[in-house]
Design a protein that fits this description.
three-stranded mixed beta sheet, about 20% strand, alpha/beta, about 35% helix, 11 strands
Amino acid sequence: MPVTEHTEDIEFRVQELTLRGKLFRPTDGTERPPVAILQGGLGGPAESMFAIARGFTDAGLACLIYDHRNTGYSHGEPRQQFDPWQQCRDLRDVITHLTLRQDIDPDRIALWGISIGGANSLFTAATDRRVKAVVSIIPPVSGWSARTLQPADTLAELEALIPADRQAQLRGERAASIRLHGVPEPGDPVMFSDQEGLEFVENMIHHLPSFRNEITISTLDRIFEMEVRAYAERITAPVLMILASKDTVAPVEEAREMYERIPDPKQVIEYPGQHYEILSHHFPEIVTRSADWLAATLRG
């Protein structure tokens, strides 16, 4: 039976910036519930996931959903710059904030993420022992492989833009950007152009006030350098990895290889289809299964 939930607008001071989001807590059950920190995919604002919070509170979990620095309702410049390593450092500071609260259990903090959010969750678990469980959904575990999302000529064009943009920003100019989703045109590249992905974000994200369909050029540089799979053996928390059997956006073979090197306890679930396809067809089930797994794992 669904439980009622309490929703709190929340702010965290992280270094010189303020990160904003919402904390959802079940009002029934334990006084200090475990908490899952939820992260979406590249470019997905926090409010795109507020609707799934009930899946976690129904399982007896609190959940925190916030915008990364430079995005959504959080502070930071340049806007729409996504830096996975920095996001993970911020995430560790957010964990510290949560450990100081009196209304959640500081010893039962979990991470849950989709796509780049799943990669962030794995990396942070590898570097912070306060993380007690991880759900990683269709994670891109190699930044080097992310380069293959682009045709060779487009990749060459983008890689030429990266140092030029660094020079421009050093001169005080605004950070250059490209579209995040869309149909590529000559001289106007996009990060993601597959049809399944376009339909998914059109239905789930594009209508939200905090969404902007762009990323900085320097985001690419930061994504390309991220190699989460190098940290597999350092993960000590229980892991649930949910994969798409035909994923080429976040190559499934690399995720499988990383999973094999993660120490037990661990579990993997594969849904048939492509990256966005399993989200379009199975997302409610994925949320329920993963929330129930977290609840059971954190109860120990």
